[in-house]
Amino acid sequence: DIGSQRDRVVSEEEWLKKWELGNIGFHKERGHPLLQKYLDVLLNGRSGLRIFFPLCGKAVEMKWLADMGHRVVGVEVSEQALRGFFAEHGLSYCEEPVPEISGAKKLQSTSGNISLYCCSIYDLSSSIVGKFDGIWDRGALVAVNPRDRQRYSSLMITFMEKNSSYLLVTVSYDPNKHKGPPFYVPESEIKSLFG
């Protein structure tokens, strides 16, 4: 049971405020050890993959995977986070509007292998970003408002190619003692969301 978290809603404005104030304890400067540990599961012996980072922030793993020859696509509501990613890695990029989404921008590395969309994840669709060979969900499902999990997982499934790998990190704790985010997502719910 997710207890008192069931009705908790974190607005887009609250997320933007976290970035503005530097309240980003969820950001990992060195990349997540579980991605390194399970990289073979994500890649499954394949190279040159398209890998999606939902709610990407300025995840250092995006550059790491791009440097390995993969094409990375991320989505994040905070433009500050996306610009921070490019600045911190010394990557030049160009910016263009996303015609299908009012007010959205795409920031793309000059090399073309990293494309980051600045918009709500729910504004994206596979007709805009295509499908992916892998998804690295390090902090997205646990950041999504509990009432939006079904909508989120349904969207993720539409982004997956036939032989896609989905690597998901969640957190385990007593949801009555912490209001989230990160939100507690019981394993039973993960199974019902993703099958």
UniProtKB/TrEMBL annotation:
Record-linked SUPFAM superfamilies: S-adenosyl-L-methionine-dependent methyltransferases
Q: Supply the InterPro entries for this chain.
A: SAM-dependent_MTases_sf (IPR029063), Thiopurine_S-MeTrfase (IPR025835), TPMT (IPR008854)
Q: Which GO terms describe its molecular function?
A: thiopurine S-methyltransferase activity
Instruction: Show the catalytic activity.
Output: S-adenosyl-L-methionine + a thiopurine = S-adenosyl-L-homocysteine + a thiopurine S-methylether
Keyword terms of this UniProt record:
Cytoplasm, Methyltransferase, S-adenosyl-L-methionine, Transferase
Principal location class? cytoplasm
Q: Name one GO cellular component term.
A: cytoplasm
User: Single Gene Ontology BP term?
Assistant: methylation
Name the residues that bind S-adenosyl-L-methionine. Answer: 15-26, 55, 76, 120-121, 138
Where found in the cell? Cytoplasm
Q: What is its EC number?
A: 2.1.1.67
Which family, according to the similarity comment? Answer: Belongs to the class I-like SAM-binding methyltransferase superfamily. TPMT family.
* Designated name of the protein: thiopurine S-methyltransferase
| Organism whose genome encodes this protein | Jacana jacana (Wattled jacana)
Q: What is the lineage of its organism?
A: Eukaryota, Metazoa, Chordata, Craniata, Vertebrata
Its gene? Tpmt
